[in-house]
Sequence to fold (253 residues):
Amino acid sequence: MKQPRSIVITGASSGIGEALAVLYAAPGVALALTGRDSARLEEVAARCRVAGAHVAVATVDVTDRAAMADWLQRIDAGTPVDLLIANAGMSAGTGAGGETEEQARRILAVNIDGVLNSIHPLLPTMRARGRGQIALMASLAGFRGLPGAPAYCASKAMVRVYGEALRGDLAEAGIRVSVICPGFVKSRMTAVNRFPMPFLMETADAALVIRRGLERNAARIAFPWPMMTAVWLLALLPPAWADRLLRQAPRKS
Fold:
Protein backbone atom coordinates (compact mmCIF):
# COMPACT_ATOMS: atom_id res chain seq x y z
CA MET A 1 0.00 0.00 0.00
CA LYS A 2 1.68 3.18 -1.23
CA GLN A 3 -0.06 5.78 0.93
CA PRO A 4 -1.82 4.32 3.99
CA ARG A 5 -3.85 7.06 5.64
CA SER A 6 -4.77 5.32 8.91
CA ILE A 7 -1.94 3.45 10.61
CA VAL A 8 -1.72 1.57 13.91
CA ILE A 9 1.73 0.92 15.39
CA THR A 10 2.25 -1.04 18.60
CA GLY A 11 5.47 -0.64 20.55
CA ALA A 12 5.75 2.92 19.22
CA SER A 13 7.45 4.52 22.22
CA SER A 14 10.97 3.55 21.14
CA GLY A 15 13.15 1.77 18.60
CA ILE A 16 11.76 0.69 15.25
CA GLY A 17 8.19 1.51 16.28
CA GLU A 18 9.13 5.10 17.07
CA ALA A 19 11.11 5.45 13.84
CA LEU A 20 8.20 4.10 11.77
CA ALA A 21 5.74 6.49 13.44
CA VAL A 22 7.96 9.47 12.65
CA LEU A 23 8.57 8.25 9.10
CA TYR A 24 4.87 7.82 8.31
CA ALA A 25 3.79 11.07 9.99
CA ALA A 26 2.47 13.56 7.44
CA PRO A 27 -0.55 15.78 6.81
CA GLY A 28 -3.67 13.70 6.23
CA VAL A 29 -2.26 10.66 8.06
CA ALA A 30 -3.95 9.34 11.22
CA LEU A 31 -1.59 7.48 13.54
CA ALA A 32 -2.73 5.33 16.47
CA LEU A 33 0.25 4.57 18.69
CA THR A 34 0.62 2.43 21.76
CA GLY A 35 3.60 1.58 23.95
CA ARG A 36 4.66 0.80 27.49
CA ASP A 37 6.32 4.14 28.31
CA SER A 38 3.66 6.88 28.37
CA ALA A 39 6.16 9.75 28.62
CA ARG A 40 8.20 8.55 25.65
CA LEU A 41 5.02 7.79 23.73
CA GLU A 42 3.83 11.37 24.18
CA GLU A 43 7.21 12.62 22.95
CA VAL A 44 6.87 10.48 19.80
CA ALA A 45 3.31 11.71 19.31
CA ALA A 46 4.43 15.34 19.60
CA ARG A 47 7.05 14.84 16.88
CA CYS A 48 4.45 13.23 14.63
CA ARG A 49 1.97 16.06 15.20
CA VAL A 50 4.63 18.61 14.25
CA ALA A 51 4.93 16.71 10.94
CA GLY A 52 1.21 17.23 10.40
CA ALA A 53 -0.23 13.86 11.42
CA HIS A 54 -3.31 13.35 13.57
CA VAL A 55 -2.15 11.18 16.48
CA ALA A 56 -4.04 9.10 19.05
CA VAL A 57 -2.03 7.46 21.81
CA ALA A 58 -2.79 4.81 24.44
CA THR A 59 -0.64 2.90 26.92
CA VAL A 60 -2.37 -0.44 26.43
CA ASP A 61 -0.67 -3.68 27.46
CA VAL A 62 -0.58 -5.81 24.31
CA THR A 63 -1.04 -8.94 26.42
CA ASP A 64 -4.44 -7.65 27.59
CA ARG A 65 -6.72 -9.18 24.97
CA ALA A 66 -9.90 -7.33 25.95
CA ALA A 67 -8.22 -3.93 26.30
CA MET A 68 -6.47 -4.27 22.95
CA ALA A 69 -9.69 -5.32 21.21
CA ASP A 70 -11.57 -2.38 22.70
CA TRP A 71 -8.89 0.15 21.72
CA LEU A 72 -8.38 -1.18 18.20
CA GLN A 73 -12.08 -1.39 17.45
CA ARG A 74 -12.58 2.19 18.61
CA ILE A 75 -9.70 3.38 16.41
CA ASP A 76 -11.02 1.44 13.42
CA ALA A 77 -14.55 2.78 13.89
CA GLY A 78 -13.26 6.35 13.75
CA THR A 79 -10.64 6.00 11.00
CA PRO A 80 -10.74 2.59 9.24
CA VAL A 81 -7.26 1.12 9.57
CA ASP A 82 -5.24 0.76 6.36
CA LEU A 83 -2.04 -0.55 7.94
CA LEU A 84 -1.35 -2.33 11.22
CA ILE A 85 2.27 -2.77 12.29
CA ALA A 86 2.36 -5.31 15.13
CA ASN A 87 5.75 -4.23 16.40
CA ALA A 88 5.54 -4.49 20.21
CA GLY A 89 7.97 -7.01 21.63
CA MET A 90 10.54 -7.67 24.31
CA SER A 91 13.84 -9.45 24.59
CA ALA A 92 15.97 -11.02 27.29
CA GLY A 93 18.56 -13.75 27.46
CA THR A 94 20.61 -16.11 29.52
CA GLY A 95 23.60 -13.88 30.22
CA ALA A 96 22.62 -13.50 33.86
CA GLY A 97 22.80 -17.24 34.46
CA GLY A 98 19.84 -18.80 32.70
CA GLU A 99 16.35 -18.12 31.46
CA THR A 100 13.76 -18.52 34.20
CA GLU A 101 10.29 -19.88 33.58
CA GLU A 102 8.80 -16.49 34.48
CA GLN A 103 11.09 -14.71 32.03
CA ALA A 104 10.32 -17.18 29.23
CA ARG A 105 6.56 -16.93 29.79
CA ARG A 106 6.64 -13.13 29.81
CA ILE A 107 8.60 -13.00 26.54
CA LEU A 108 6.25 -15.48 24.87
CA ALA A 109 3.19 -13.61 26.13
CA VAL A 110 4.34 -10.23 24.82
CA ASN A 111 5.83 -11.44 21.54
CA ILE A 112 3.15 -13.99 20.62
CA ASP A 113 -0.07 -13.09 22.44
CA GLY A 114 0.70 -9.43 21.83
CA VAL A 115 0.82 -10.02 18.07
CA LEU A 116 -2.40 -12.04 18.07
CA ASN A 117 -4.15 -9.41 20.21
CA SER A 118 -3.07 -6.74 17.72
CA ILE A 119 -4.17 -8.56 14.57
CA HIS A 120 -7.46 -10.29 15.26
CA PRO A 121 -9.62 -7.36 16.43
CA LEU A 122 -9.08 -5.72 13.02
CA LEU A 123 -9.51 -8.72 10.75
CA PRO A 124 -13.34 -8.74 10.62
CA THR A 125 -13.59 -5.14 9.41
CA MET A 126 -10.64 -5.49 7.03
CA ARG A 127 -12.36 -8.53 5.53
CA ALA A 128 -15.62 -6.63 5.23
CA ARG A 129 -13.87 -3.76 3.43
CA GLY A 130 -11.87 -6.14 1.24
CA ARG A 131 -8.61 -4.33 1.93
CA GLY A 132 -5.95 -3.69 4.53
CA GLN A 133 -2.33 -4.46 5.33
CA ILE A 134 -0.72 -6.17 8.30
CA ALA A 135 2.98 -6.20 9.18
CA LEU A 136 4.31 -8.58 11.82
CA MET A 137 7.64 -7.87 13.52
CA ALA A 138 9.65 -11.09 13.61
CA SER A 139 13.46 -11.22 13.59
CA LEU A 140 16.41 -12.91 11.91
CA ALA A 141 16.71 -14.68 15.28
CA GLY A 142 13.56 -16.58 14.30
CA PHE A 143 15.38 -18.66 11.69
CA ARG A 144 17.53 -20.65 14.13
CA GLY A 145 17.36 -21.17 17.87
CA LEU A 146 20.24 -19.37 19.57
CA PRO A 147 21.39 -20.63 22.98
CA GLY A 148 21.59 -17.10 24.38
CA ALA A 149 17.90 -16.28 23.90
CA PRO A 150 15.65 -19.37 23.77
CA ALA A 151 12.25 -17.76 24.36
CA TYR A 152 12.98 -14.77 22.15
CA CYS A 153 14.05 -16.96 19.22
CA ALA A 154 11.05 -19.24 19.68
CA SER A 155 8.62 -16.33 19.80
CA LYS A 156 10.03 -14.73 16.67
CA ALA A 157 10.02 -18.06 14.81
CA MET A 158 6.31 -18.38 15.61
CA VAL A 159 5.59 -14.83 14.44
CA ARG A 160 7.49 -15.40 11.20
CA VAL A 161 5.81 -18.67 10.30
CA TYR A 162 2.38 -17.48 11.42
CA GLY A 163 2.69 -14.37 9.27
CA GLU A 164 3.84 -16.34 6.25
CA ALA A 165 0.84 -18.64 6.58
CA LEU A 166 -1.54 -15.76 7.27
CA ARG A 167 -0.43 -14.05 4.06
CA GLY A 168 -1.76 -16.91 1.97
CA ASP A 169 -4.95 -17.21 4.01
CA LEU A 170 -5.85 -13.53 3.70
CA ALA A 171 -4.76 -12.82 0.12
CA GLU A 172 -8.17 -13.61 -1.38
CA ALA A 173 -9.78 -11.28 1.16
CA GLY A 174 -7.69 -8.40 -0.19
CA ILE A 175 -5.56 -8.17 2.96
CA ARG A 176 -1.81 -7.95 2.50
CA VAL A 177 0.53 -9.50 5.08
CA SER A 178 4.28 -8.98 5.41
CA VAL A 179 6.75 -10.43 7.90
CA ILE A 180 9.59 -8.17 9.02
CA CYS A 181 12.87 -9.87 10.01
CA PRO A 182 15.48 -7.32 11.15
CA GLY A 183 18.97 -8.05 12.32
CA PHE A 184 20.61 -5.80 14.91
CA VAL A 185 19.03 -2.32 14.96
CA LYS A 186 19.94 0.46 17.40
CA SER A 187 17.29 0.63 20.13
CA ARG A 188 16.87 0.36 23.87
CA MET A 189 16.60 -3.40 23.33
CA THR A 190 20.03 -3.68 21.71
CA ALA A 191 21.61 -0.99 23.90
CA VAL A 192 21.95 -3.51 26.74
CA ASN A 193 23.95 -5.95 24.62
CA ARG A 194 27.55 -6.20 25.77
CA PHE A 195 28.88 -7.98 22.70
CA PRO A 196 29.69 -6.99 19.11
CA MET A 197 26.57 -6.72 16.94
CA PRO A 198 27.49 -7.34 13.28
CA PHE A 199 25.98 -4.94 10.72
CA LEU A 200 24.23 -2.86 13.41
CA MET A 201 21.79 -0.53 11.63
CA GLU A 202 20.54 2.93 12.46
CA THR A 203 16.88 2.88 13.45
CA ALA A 204 15.82 5.39 10.80
CA ASP A 205 17.50 3.30 8.09
CA ALA A 206 15.67 0.19 9.26
CA ALA A 207 12.34 2.03 9.21
CA LEU A 208 12.95 3.14 5.63
CA VAL A 209 13.73 -0.43 4.52
CA ILE A 210 10.51 -1.59 6.17
CA ARG A 211 8.37 1.11 4.59
CA ARG A 212 9.74 0.36 1.13
CA GLY A 213 9.08 -3.35 1.63
CA LEU A 214 5.51 -2.71 2.72
CA GLU A 215 4.91 -0.44 -0.27
CA ARG A 216 5.75 -3.29 -2.63
CA ASN A 217 3.83 -5.85 -0.55
CA ALA A 218 6.95 -7.92 0.12
CA ALA A 219 6.20 -11.24 1.77
CA ARG A 220 9.35 -11.05 3.87
CA ILE A 221 11.33 -7.92 4.69
CA ALA A 222 14.65 -9.29 5.98
CA PHE A 223 17.74 -7.08 6.47
CA PRO A 224 20.59 -6.27 6.43
CA TRP A 225 21.45 -8.71 3.67
CA PRO A 226 24.91 -9.82 4.99
CA MET A 227 23.38 -10.77 8.35
CA MET A 228 20.38 -12.33 6.64
CA THR A 229 22.69 -14.49 4.49
CA ALA A 230 24.73 -15.58 7.51
CA VAL A 231 21.60 -16.58 9.45
CA TRP A 232 20.15 -18.53 6.53
CA LEU A 233 23.43 -20.41 6.05
CA LEU A 234 23.56 -21.19 9.77
CA ALA A 235 20.01 -22.56 9.61
CA LEU A 236 21.02 -24.85 6.72
CA LEU A 237 23.91 -26.44 8.65
CA PRO A 238 23.42 -29.82 10.33
CA PRO A 239 22.43 -29.15 13.96
CA ALA A 240 25.63 -30.68 15.35
CA TRP A 241 27.75 -28.31 13.28
CA ALA A 242 25.66 -25.28 14.19
CA ASP A 243 25.76 -26.22 17.87
CA ARG A 244 29.58 -26.18 17.82
CA LEU A 245 29.61 -22.74 16.26
CA LEU A 246 27.03 -21.31 18.63
CA ARG A 247 28.50 -22.77 21.80
CA GLN A 248 31.02 -19.93 21.94
CA ALA A 249 28.52 -17.20 21.04
CA PRO A 250 28.01 -14.41 23.62
CA ARG A 251 24.86 -14.53 25.76
CA LYS A 252 22.37 -11.67 25.87
CA SER A 253 21.78 -10.14 29.29
The mean pLDDT is 90. The two ends are 38 Å apart (CA to CA). Strands lie at 6-9, 30-34, 54-58, 83-86, 132-137, 175-182, 220-223. Residues 6-246 form a domain with the Rossmann fold fold (CATH 3.40.50.720).
